[in-house]
Amino acid sequence: MSKRAQKAVIPAAGLGTRFLPATKALPKEMLPVVDKPAIQYVVEEVTRSGIRDTLVILGRNKNAISNHFDSVPELETNLTNKGDIEKLRRVQHSSDLADIHFVRQGEPKGLGHAVLRAKAHVGDETFAVLLGDDLIDERDTLLETMLDQNEQTGLTVVALMEVDPDHIHMYGVASVEPTDTPDVVKVTGLVEKPKKEDAPSNLAVIGRYVLTPNVFSILERTEPGKGGEIQLTDALQELAVTDGVLGVVFRGRRYDTGDRVDYIKAIVQLAIDREDLGTDLKPWLKDFAAQL
């Protein structure tokens, strides 16, 4: 048994070019998904897992993210004076979620480089990494399961999901062997964004990781790979050979906000399940779909 991870890292330094011009001044992590910015869903997932210490890796012009998780006394006073307690509660919730820290990535050199920027904060501890493009439904317990596996084995754990082979080129892809635990596999190799014909499986790495601190020494000597960036996948490939890596195969509800179409789908899916929105939205959607 190893010590359960107590810290999480959320890389949020990407430029969000797929959402231009909306992301010209607004960080893509702050794009609203129904009525919360995408990154708030991720921080809420962290806190549900029991982790209270979160480090966000920022890029330039990302001050809106730190502002969102800060208190806004004048707004809170205004809502209090109006007696708008429900909105006051929602505003305060984002400020009270967790102990959130921020560090700048500097030059954007890839996900591996962003994770390496967390070294001073994380130290010699196991930690979770969550990407903001993948939102996991609050009814599912993916991160908790990954933390459990790490605690039991001491190994790095990645989240895997079966994807359409036609889309496999968009992901890091794992070659795996079964274990005695259902939906937990041993990762024997990883390749970043392979061609469909070269992919070792249809199990793609999605944006959840529980990493041992050994990853830092590997990232420090990892050369730029695919796209000229320092790829976390390359470091995980080395860990799979030397230390061992487990994969948790996720079969729950995932909302991909990484491109425009999937972002819209995520908003609709989440809104339909809301008690305050679904009742009105479902019949409208049925009528709208019937007209297509």
From TrEMBL:
E.C. number(s) listed in UniProt: 2.7.7.9
Single GO BP term: UDP-alpha-D-glucose metabolic process
GO molecular function annotation: UTP:glucose-1-phosphate uridylyltransferase activity
InterPro entries: GalU_uridylyltTrfase_bac/arc, NTP_transferase_dom, Nucleotide-diphossugar_trans
Protein keywords: Nucleotidyltransferase, Transferase
Family to which this protein belongs: Belongs to the UDPGP type 2 family.
Name the UniProt record assigns to this protein: UTP--glucose-1-phosphate uridylyltransferase
Organism: Microbacterium telephonicum
